[in-house]
Amino acid sequence: MKRIIVLITLLCVGSSLCGCSATEGDAVDLPDSKAVQRMELQFIDGCALSKVIRVNDEDKDAILEKIRTAGEKGEDSVDDTPQEDPYITVSIYTKEHKDDQDVYFYRKNGDYYMEQPYIGVWEVSEELYNMLNEYVGEPAEPSKTIEGDTEAD
Fold first, then answer.
1. 3 state SS for 46-96
2. How would residue 9 be classed by pLDDT, with cut points 50, 70 and 90?
3. Largest CA distance in the chain
4. Closest to 36 in 3D by CA, of 19, 59, 12, 20
5. In the predicted model, is pLDDT for residue 152 greater than 70?
6. By C-alpha distance, which of 2, 7, 60, 13 is closest to 32?
7. Phi, psi at 148, each rounded to 5°
8. Which residues contact 115 (CB under 8 A, 6 or more apart)?
9. What is the DSSP string of 95-109?
10. pTM to 2 decimals?
């Protein structure tokens, strides 16, 4: 009887340790580079949209590699699009279209982030953020609000 209890305990501990060592849930979920047919970028500021920019193959591979090496997942994503404004949409289209997806990039409180809807939010390098900004030709900086613009009673 003691052997059965020890065996069950070891199986439970072993199973939980295997689950703790897995980090797949923290990785950015992107299709394989060879499966990506094209990539498009678009700058979005509120309701204003920029033209869609198609990324050439050389830059597509460089962007995908930089996205894959993003830091650790910070928090979960709970919306279709980011709550921050403005942002850059990176649309990834695969050959069979079953893994097509959008990834969003924005700046918040001086840091740079990437968001995959309903998957997660990662902090990214300023270098990647600036590279995407240059590609779309727009300054994706948070909009400035004018304070104290109220009439006196």
1. CCEECCCEECCHHHHHHHHHHHHCCCCEEECCCCCCCCCCCEEEEEEEECC
2. low
3. 83
4. 59
5. no
6. 60
7. 75, 25
8. 77, 82, 103, 104, 105, 106, 121, 122
9. TTSSS-EEEEEEEET
10. 0.71
